[in-house]
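Researcher: Here's a chain I'd like modeled. Treat it as a single chain, no partners, no ligands.
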Amino acid sequence: MPLAVPEPHAHDAPVSPWRHRRRVSGLVLVLVVAAGFAPVPGAVVAQQSLPADPPTASDRAAASGRPATTALVAERSSSRDAAALAAEAAAVADAAERTAEREAAASEAAARAAQQKATDAASEKAAAEKAAAAQTAAAQTAAAKKQAAQKAAEKQAALDAGPARLGARGAKTLAVQKRLVAHGWRVAADGDFGPATDRALRAFQSSRGLTADGVAGDRTVAALNAAPRATSGGTGSASSGGSSSGGSSGGSGAPAKSAPQAASAPSGGVVAQTNWYRAQAGCGPLSVDSRLGAAAQGHVNDMAAKGYFAHDSLDGTTFDQRIRRAGYGAPGGENLARGQSSATQVLRDWMASPGHRANIVNCAFRTIGVGQSGSYWAQDFGY
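Model: Modeled as a single isolated chain. Structure tokens:
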């Protein structure tokens, strides 16, 4: 009997041709079986069927019992939900990345701040240590200055307590200076035993046959306290009418004995006769120094060329400056003369002048240099 094919429900979706063909094939097979046909023994039954279509939303809806429209909406909603979730995940990841970057920047800033703080602390510590070291050094310097001043005061006190000598100050020095002035030496009576007083005292000691050490010991003080000797005058005149001028850098003249007669005067040049007079006064001989000789010769040449006669050059240079410029570091004194024609005559005139004689017989002098230009003569002495 023929099989009845049920009508599709109104809510079923249209059947695709492929699905219809599968249904027909199945119906034919059922009909064959129902008709009692049996396959021939040994025969191979072959059947070819079309591949099944992938399930659609309608299929899934039919399987689930939901309408097809509802399934499509659900499928689309799922797609939108997945996209939204992906976008949300991306946004969360981006926000997390920005948060991590901000945290990293904050950490780096905190590290820099900590490092700067440590640097500032180290700088403050170094500054404090430097200030402390400076204070310590200042305290040490002040203590050293105080100690040096104390030692200097003690040394000065000891110096002032002893015999008057170079560097001493006070009443003893003032008394020595006043006695030197009384004996004809021009020194400042100021109570300060400076180089000028030292040179004057040494010259005085030489003129009295004492050791010219510049110390006002008992014998020197006794000689100073004795009555001043009569002198032979401040200048000696030459046969040509010229005058001699001289003296140590102290500018003083020393009392002198009467000049020896020509018969008793030595022979020879200026140096030889100078040493002869020194020997008579108990002083050692002077040695010739070329630097002193250069200074003396330069000055007499200048005086002869420019027509003047003075210890100071026309440009204001003093005798000791000339000697130092010549390379000699310890100038002692200078004697000048003009108008004499021989060494014997110039030595006689110098010995007749207290200041010149004091230079010649100053036992503290060790060296001499001589210059002559025509009738101009010069002796430069050095310690």
